Amino acid sequence: MKLPPISYRRAGSADEAVALLAESGDDAAVLAGGQSLLLELRYGDVRRGVLVDLAGAADLAGLAVADGELRLGALVRHAAVERLELDDPLARLLRRAAAYVAHPPIRARGTFAGSLAWAHPAAEWCALARALDARMTVRGPAGEREVAAEDWFRGPHRTQRAPDEVLTAVTLPLLGAGAGVGFAELRRTSGSFALAAAGCAVHVAAGRVTRARIGLANAAGVPVRAAEAEAALVGSDGSPDAVRAAADAAAAAADPASEPHCSAEYRRHALGVLTARALTEALGEAA
């Protein structure tokens, strides 16, 4: 792939990456997996003079479980999430969604945190981060801070990360034993972006839904947390009628855009259908 003239800098740590960004100002781009960024640079959709590569920052690698949470460093690849072995329903949900992320070669290079930093409205990880109350850790010249998923996404390819900050990790709460999870996606080809997708996690006790979390991809300019759909399901018996009511609420909460291969009306309908499928799968597990 031919790129326009650009200065390449390889950071050996998160702090070094922050320093390099501070030197370059708004003219720098952060490279983790690069599976989206390099294409944008190639076609001129993104114009930068400096590329700061995180590949050498060992402190940004690896994942860990502590205090009921899963923490994924900025260099954790999609493929590592696809192979995640963890005794919690969260791992099942992440593995199911990972299978829909592009192609295996892209999953081998692209990163979980990079997807959240890129903030594509159709990204599976962005929808799940929103549904699961993920927290993003960013580091900049002023130090480190955390941003909740509900505040992170500002629009297509726009987040709360400042130009001189690095997204260092993403933290996801574990779901706990007994939770059911589901994921459903519609796309044109096996490697296409999602035309629409829905992911969820539910808890059931004494025959009633006690908690539900539902995230939608490509439902608006940012990932959507379907709060109205969650409220429609909580307290119900999880029957097909309850699932349909929740799915209708999810579709109503969506504000999708039209594309050449998918009108807004069709996408909204698909989001309702996919929500119903994901919830049916999750309720079956929880039961």
TrEMBL record:
Gene3D superfamilies: 3.30.465.10, CO dehydrogenase flavoprotein, C-terminal domain (3.30.390.50), Uridine Diphospho-n-acetylenolpyruvylglucosamine Reductase, domain 2 (3.30.43.10). Residues 1-177 form the FAD-binding PCMH-type domain. Keywords: FAD, Flavoprotein, Oxidoreductase. InterPro entries: CO_DH_flav_C, CO_DH_flav_C_dom_sf, Diverse_Substr_Oxidored, FAD-bd_PCMH, FAD-bd_PCMH-like_sf, FAD-bd_PCMH_sub1, FAD-bd_PCMH_sub2, Mopterin_DH_FAD-bd. This is Carbon-monoxide dehydrogenase medium subunit. GO terms for molecular function: FAD binding; oxidoreductase activity. It comes from the Bacteria. PROSITE patterns: FAD_PCMH. Coiled coil: none annotated.
